[in-house]
From TrEMBL:
Organism, scientific name: Paraflavisolibacter caeni
Signal sequence, renumbered to the chain: 1-20
Keywords in alphabetical order: Signal
CDD domains reported for this sequence: PKD
Protein name: PKD domain-containing protein
Domain PKD span(s) in chain numbering: 566-651, 672-721, 763-814
A Pfam family of this chain: PKD_4
InterPro entries: Ig-like_fold, IgGFc-bd_N, PKD/Chitinase_dom, PKD_dom, PKD_dom_sf, T9SS_type_B
Length: 1175
């Protein structure tokens, strides 16, 4: 209870007057008209009739009805949240001309909806957002545009609808002459019943007409009632906007805002894809001062003291000291620098004073009759983090905003969207327009608007808020107030049975203030009221106005009081449960009203008023967090609470046992603690790539593979899941020395043995080493100690034998290494001896080798020295510090070619100590070797015949035999290029002298690849015709030559054209870039035309006894057929081997004329004719 009282006190302290946004384009009652369209005058038939549709949507599910009583139309509808319901309006409700109509379209719904009206046909389309009845006013101005179109009967227009019951008297003052002759500037009145419409059309001449901008439409009093609400729509039946460009036109259709809702500041954002826009600024008061981007506009620049036009592609700021309205116009496509697609449209903008925080809109795309291709949205909102971060389109954040030039307090954004429904929400208010373009068509409208009468409204005040519209909370006492721009003589509140009606004579106001130069007064009922059920309650206020200004003294003001359920606060938290982590509190309340205030109490005396705070508790413990909120109409929620358990974090601690040496174990022990609970997890980070997870705090060992600095860290986790802060220790892992020393080679006669340190370390810190030597000498004494700490110590051994010596090397970091080696103190009597296994004569180009057979009486030899030319060049020697018996030694002497033989003396010394040695020697003979030369070889073609290679030979006096070897060559030197084919081939020549010594010399020969000629297949050629030879070749950069060149068009191409008159052989020769050649032959058979005799005499006289066809033998597949006069086949043959002998089935045929068919084939056409048989 105490917490609740604290919260209430804090909230009451924080509350101030709230100007909530309730009079938006969302509502439950609408009056709409089927506005004028050029096709109402010019349609050639039903297929050209315009259509009207209503698009109805909401963010909640609801039901409703559309009625047009005058035409008997009624249609119920069902709305699914965030979906579009389409209603087709019958054309019988259209406003076909100027005058009075009964065709008001009445839309009602059980819950608030958004309605859009769309009139369209064949690329002439316009759309408007519709305004609920409760937002309508009593005085309007028409805003249109300069009227010109691409056809006649396109009128500037406006129409007015009576929205209240009873008779509404409307005074109309046209700004220009009307279609039926009403003159400009002369007012006239019409009386309308609820739902009746009066439409005014501007006068036209041909394809142009008057602009009705500035026409005044207002509701005035009559004999029976005061001023009533009216709806006004403006537009054009068809219009083009822009000069010197396409003539395409479009209709305009917009619902006008009441004058009382106009604002003083607008931010105009040109469209995407149609960036050069016209804007029209309209003044409600001719004395208003207007600034455009900070520059004052002169009064004379306003047409008729009412409007000012400008064209721009830049974002503009428009301000005034009195209410104004701004309209935005898209041009005809290809006008004013705007590309396709597009066409004219008009949108009434909203001032920054009239914003919304949530809207569901429709990007228009009817199923038929239009072809809108692109859809866009423009946004304007406050330039603050809360607004930008909470702005969402269809549930996704949109942050592509830019500061408004000339006013950085605002930002603007533009985006492309798909057709259909879109939901836009923000924690703060914004302005929005929706528009789209197609080929020669467009649509555009204010995406959502907040229309509040700035001068006359009901005010509700409860404990937590004062709102300037009729709304309250269930079970929450409140006071009624009425704000008026005058002081009434009496006020009567009629509650329709909800409460007793209240009449106040000569009411007194409790406060007054100025708005746009008008004095406003607030009249409050002191008695508080409480309503116990949510719902909508109609209320009427009847005011006696002593200064009616065109209305009677009695003014009836109707409102619907909306009573809402108090909000239900709901919260979520995200918290690790561990100190000192932050707790993330989130408001997840589901609300039907905007939130104006929030209060979080974290249970430790601290509070916050942000939506989703992040809080860090100061100490572990159990806390109860509380949350309350207040909606924009002052409804206080119940208190939501959440228990927050803040558990202590454990404290990590650990120790490391030195020394810290590479590849040596380091002992690590944990000493972490936690004030409550227990530690259940240990995460060790070793400062390298290793992370170790342990399940207990037992000590463990770890070793590093490389030297360097490491930060060892520990994080421990408690049984509550809380983790400690990471604690770390920096260590330096030192290098471990690599102990080593060189053992001396000594005999018993040497005065001392010296040990040479060869220890190393990877960080090159050898100079810092410390040493501990043990010489392993059992005979050592104080004068000749067994130990030393020197780097390279000396020690005297007194007996021969094997000794074990150890060395320990230490670094300043405590890293150590030990090595132990054995060595001998050798005897004093070595014996030098060597053996040559392959005789004592050697070729000078081969190595000379011998085997060591030296030894010593005790121990081992420590060194062997070999002098390879002891007599003449003792500097040539080999020293071996690790000799052993049977070890082979070899040497390559300088090769020589003369004289034929040389001698040299090899001397060997064997050492068992520095002062103990023995020697031996041996003279050997070296023989001369052949001296060879191999002259260069010329390249050859692979298709050349074999050739002899004779360029290799021996040039010194040694006798012997030579032999060749390699690919494609015989030992005698015959070389076959075709075995190599192509490339560089290596040839070796070996000469073996009679003295047994040999040498080898090598050379290379290049074999060029052989080209390949192909003259093509043998060809048949009809006599008198020509043919291309089918020659081709393979090879590198070929040239071609044909021989003979008779009857060829060219002889140096692969496929010349040949026209021989007789049979002909042609030879094709191809030549590669290397000069290699190849040839091939083709035969061209000339097929002469068969010569067919026209008679023969088969009488057996040996003359012309057979019918022989000359040249038919060139056609082996030819067919010959002969027919008698009756068409009977008497002879048939294939080929020419058996000419016709004038018989048929063995009997002579009768004398006469016979018909023949000869088909030579091989490309020659069939021949026919007659042959006579004569006897």
């Amino acid at each position: 209870m105490r917490i609740r009282v604290i919260i209430l006190l804090l909230l009451i302290h924080a509350i101030h007057t709230l100007f909530a946004q309730d009079f938006s384009n969302k509502g439950k009652d609408f009056w709409i008209g089927y506005g004028n369209h050029v096709r109402m005058f010019n349609a050639a038939g039903p297929n050209q009739y315009e259509k009207m549709q209503l698009y109805i949507t909401s963010d909640i599910n609801t039901v409703g009805k559309v009625e047009i009583a005058s035409v008997g139309f009624s249609q119920n509808f069902t709305i699914t949240a965030n979906q579009i319901t389409t209603i087709d309006i019958p054309r019988s409700a259209a406003l076909m001309d100027q005058g009075l109509y009964d065709h008001g379209i009445h839309v009602t719904a059980q819950k608030p909806i958004v309605v859009y009206s769309f009139i369209y046909v064949n690329a002439i389309s316009g759309a408007t957002v519709c305004l609920p009845t409760e937002t309508l006013g009593k005085e309007y101005f028409s805003v249109n545009y300069s009227q010109a179109a691409n056809e006649q009967n396109a009128h500037s227009y406006f129409f007015v609808i009576a929205a209240d019951e009873g008779t509404t008297t409307v005074e109309i003052t046209p700004s220009a002459d009307t279609k039926i002759g009403q003159p400009a500037g002369v007012p006239f009145t019409v009386d309308l019943k609820q739902g009746q419409i009066y439409q005014v059309l501007g006068k036209t001449t041909g394809q142009t007409g008057v602009d009705l901008t500035g026409s005044k439409i207002r509701s005035i009093s009559n004999n029976t009632s005061g001023c009533k609400k009216i709806a006004v729509f403006c537009g054009s039946g068809k219009i083009k906007i822009g000069a010197n460009c396409d003539q395409t036109s479009d209709n305009l259709y917009q619902q006008m805002y009441p004058k009382a809702t106009w604002g003083k500041k607008y931010i105009a954002v040109p469209g995407l894809g149609n960036a050069n826009n016209y804007f029209r600024i309209c003044k409600s008061d001719p004395t208003a001062t207007v600034w455009l981007n900070g520059n004052q506009l002169t009064a004379s620049s306003f047409i008729n003291n009412f409007y000012y036009d400008f064209l721009t592609k830049e974002v503009s700021v428009i301000e005034s000291d009195k209410p104004i309205l701004v309209a935005q116009y898209f041009t005809t496509q290809n006008c004013e620098g705007n590309p396709k697609p597009g066409d004219p449209d008009m949108i009434y903008l909203n001032p920054v004073e009239q914003t919304i925080s949530r809207v569901t809109l429709n990007s228009m795309q009817p199923v038929t009759g239009t072809n809108i291709q692109v859809h866009y949205l423009n946004f304007v909102l406050k330039n603050n983090k809360e607004a930008i971060n909470s702005f969402k389109v269809d549930g996704s954040p949109f942050t592509n905003f830019n500061p408004v030039p000339n006013d950085s307090n605002y930002v603007y954004g533009r985006m492309s969207v798909s057709s259909g429904t879109h939901n836009i929400v923000c924690d703060t208010g914004f302005n929005i327009i929706s528009y789209g373009f197609g080929e020669a068509e467009s649509y555009g409208y204010s995406g959502g608007t907040n229309l509040k009468d700035l001068y006359q409204f009901v005010s509700i005040k409860n404990q937590y808020a004062t709102v300037d519209f009729p709304a309250g909370c269930r079970n929450s006492p409140f006071n009624f107030s009425m704000v008026l721009p005058y002081k009434p003589t009496q006020l009567e509140w009629k509650f329709n049975g909800l409460f007793p009606d209240t009449l106040i004579i000569a009411p007194g106001y409790d406060s007054t203030w100025m708005v746009n130069g008008r004095q406003l007064y607030r009249f409050k009922i002191e008695k508080p009221y409480t309503i116990y059920e949510i719902g909508s309650y109609p209320i009427k206020i009847i005011a006696q106005n002593p200064t009616p200004e065109g209305c009677s003294g009695v003014q009836e003001i109707d409102y619907v009081l909306e009573i809402f359920e108090k909000p239900k606060a709901q919260i979520n938290t995200e918290f690790s449960g561990c100190f000192p982590d932050s707790t993330y509190f989130t408001d997840v309340s589901i609300l039907d009203r905007p939130v104006s205030k929030r209060l979080w109490n974290f249970g430790d005396g601290n509070i916050s008023q942000v939506k989703s705070p992040v809080y860090k508790y100061k100490a572990p413990g159990t806390y109860t967090a509380y949350y309350n909120l207040i909606t924009d109409i002052g409804c206080l929620s119940d208190t939501a609470s959440k228990i927050i358990e803040v558990n202590p974090a454990p404290v990590a601690m650990f120790d490391l046992l030195s020394p810290f040496c590479k590849l040596q174990d380091i002992t690590i022990s944990d000493s972490s603690s936690v004030s409550s609970g227990s530690i259940t997890g240990w995460l060790w980070k070793m400062g390298n790539a290793d992370s170790l997870v342990k399940k207990d705090n037992a000590s463990f060992k770890y070793r590093y593979n490389t030297i360097g600095d490491y930060r060892v860290s520990l994080i421990v986790e408690s049984d509550k899941g809380c983790k400690s802060q990471e604690v770390s220790r920096q260590i330096n892992v030192g290098a471990v020395p690599n102990a080593g020393f060189i053992t001396p080679g000594n005999c018993i006669k040497d005065p001392f043995s010296q040990f040479i340190d060869s220890s190393s370390i990877e960080d090159n810190s050898e100079s810092a080493f410390s040493y501990t030597w043990n010489f392993g000498d059992a005979n050592a004494g104080s004068a000749n100690p067994n130990f030393s700490t020197q780097k390279n110590p000396l020690h005297k051994y007194t007996a021969t034998g094997e000794y074990s010596v150890s060395l320990v090397v230490n670094t300043p970091k405590g890293c150590a290494d030990t090595i132990q080696q054995k060595f001998y103190i050798n005897g004093a009597k070595p014996n030098a001896s060597i053996a040559f296994k392959n005789g004592l004569e050697f070729c000078s180009n081969k190595n000379v080798s011998f085997t060591n057979e030296s030894g010593v009486d005790v121990g081992k030899l420590i060194r062997l020295e070999v002098f390879w030319d002891y007599n003449y060049d003792p500097k040539i020697k080999t020293i071996d510090s690790f000799p052993f018996q049977s070890k082979t030694y070899q040497y390559n002497y300088q090769e020589f070619f003369s004289p034929e033989i040389k001698s040299t003396n090899i001397m060997v010394f064997a050492y068992s100590g520095q002062n103990c040695l023995d020697s031996t020697s041996q003279i050997i003979s070296l023989k001369a070797t052949p001296k060879l030369v191999f002259d260069p070889l010329s390249p050859v073609c692979a298709n050349e015949g074999p050739l002899m290679i004779t360029q290799a030979r021996n040039t010194n006096s040694l006798s012997g035999n030579g032999a060749y070897s390699g690919l494609g060559i015989t030992t005698s030197g015959k070389f076959y290029p075709d075995k190599v084919k192509s490339g560089i081939d290596s040839i070796a020549y070996t000469f073996t002298a009679d003295n047994g010594c040999s040498n080898v010399i090598k050379n290379t020969i290049e074999v060029f690849p052989a080209p390949m000629a192909n003259a093509g297949p043998d060809l048949d050629l009809l006599e008198g015709k020509g043919i291309f030879l089918q020659g081709r070749g393979m090879g590198r950069e070929l040239s071609y030559a044909w021989t003979p060149d008779f009857y060829l068009n060219k002889s140096d191409t692969a496929q010349p054209f040949a026209t021989p008159g007789n049979d002909q052989y042609y030879t094709l020769t191809v030549k590669s870039r290397d000069g290699c050649k190849d040839d091939d032959v083709v035969f061209v058979k000339v097929l002469k035309k068969p010569l067919i005799p026209n008679a023969f005499s088969p009488n057996g006289d040996g003359m012309h006894d057979r019918w022989e066809i000359k040249y038919l033998d060139s056609y082996p597949e030819a067919t010959v057929e002969v027919y008698n006069r009756y068409g009977e086949l008497v002879y048939k043959s294939i080929g020419s081997s058996k000419p016709w002998d004038g018989t048929f089935k063995g009997n002579p045929v009768p004398v006469g004329t016979y018909y023949y068919l000869v088909n030579p084939k091989r490309g020659r056409q069939q021949m026919s004719g007659f042959v006579d048989v004569i006897r």
